[in-house]
From TrEMBL:
One of its GO terms (molecular function) is oxidoreductase activity, acting on NAD(P)H. The keyword Flavoprotein applies. Residues 229-255 are annotated as: Disordered. Residues 2-171 form the FAD/NAD(P)-binding domain. Residues 232-241 have a biased composition (Polar residues). Pfam families: Pyr_redox_2, Reductase_C. This is FAD/NAD(P)-binding domain-containing protein. Transmembrane segments: none annotated. Its cofactor is FAD. Keywords: FAD, Flavoprotein, Oxidoreductase. It comes from Streptomyces violaceusniger. Residues 199-221 form the Reductase C-terminal domain.
Amino acid sequence: MHTLRTLDDALRLRAELRAGAARAVVVGAGFIGAEVASSCATLGLDVTVVEAAPLPLVPQLGEEMARVCAGLHARGGATLLCGTGVAGLRGGGRVTGVELTDGRVLPADVVVVGVGVRPVTGWLEGSGLALDDGVRCDEGCVTALPNVVAVGDVARLDRPGTARTVRAEHWTSGMLQGDVAARNLLAGSTVARFDALPYFWSDQYGARIQYAGWREPGDTVRILEGTRPTAAASSPSTNGTGFPPPPSAWTGPGPSCGCAASWPALRSRPGGDRRVRLTGPLPAA
Ligand SMILES: Cc1cc2nc3c(=O)[nH]c(=O)nc-3n(C[C@H](O)[C@H](O)[C@H](O)COP(=O)(O)OP(=O)(O)OC[C@H]3O[C@@H](n4cnc5c(N)ncnc54)[C@H](O)[C@@H]3O)c2cc1C
């Protein structure tokens, strides 16, 4: 049974996949689960992805995009089982199967668990820092202790122009926040704020998803290029056929603020743009 957080985790997983494993079960169809499943399928393994939610990635991407992602699994040859959780693992020294909450048992040579990311902040308790699923910061990465800043996965920042907070687990957030945090640390107060839009990418089954901005409930998906897949063809629990090419780009309402490729230039603004780009080469239908 594997998790994937470090280089050593990746090396261990690769060694096992190369040692003749035939059946992989991936728990969780988030970005890590989907990318692992994609790699396993590319290596020729029989892959099943188990996702407790009715569709993968709905909180992050919305339902339309989630259907596209479900379709990528199907087109890549992986079986996506949604709406069922994992009740336990079967086996002794080695895992041999995954027991689902609906009673099914999936035989497995390799199991990868891609769920449960959370910031490790226990060691900061009692330090005077405000902790709330991360280290609470103002818009400039400055914590409750003015001489302490936090950046990257652990930092939960006030979101500019809203009463909300945000903690983004993206490389670009960690990279760009360092600059803002250092300026505020040197100034001794918040003179700069972090206002870059979140940006991430994910490579799955030969397609690349790029996402910049915030998805808000009620956003309307507008197809800019390509075709919207039909709901029936993107049913998540089959290896459905006839799935049309996923759209290559779509966006929510609001003023355009550039494409994902120019992410450093993206800046938050009230009612700003939400943009997703999905590019091929896409798996053949
Ligand atoms: C498998 C995987 C795939 C990913 N793919 C993408 C992707 O495609 N695109 C993307 O944008 N993001 C991706 N991410 C997320 C991205 O890796 C993180 O957002 C990014 O690494 C966060 O950087 P960070 O510096 O905040 O934290 P980390 O990179 O986790 O670095 C934190 C470091 O601090 C060390 N540390 C922790 N606690 C302590 C302590 N108490 N004392 C001293 N050291 C400590 C840790 O050992 C670690 O080395 C992925 C993550 C994973 C796990």
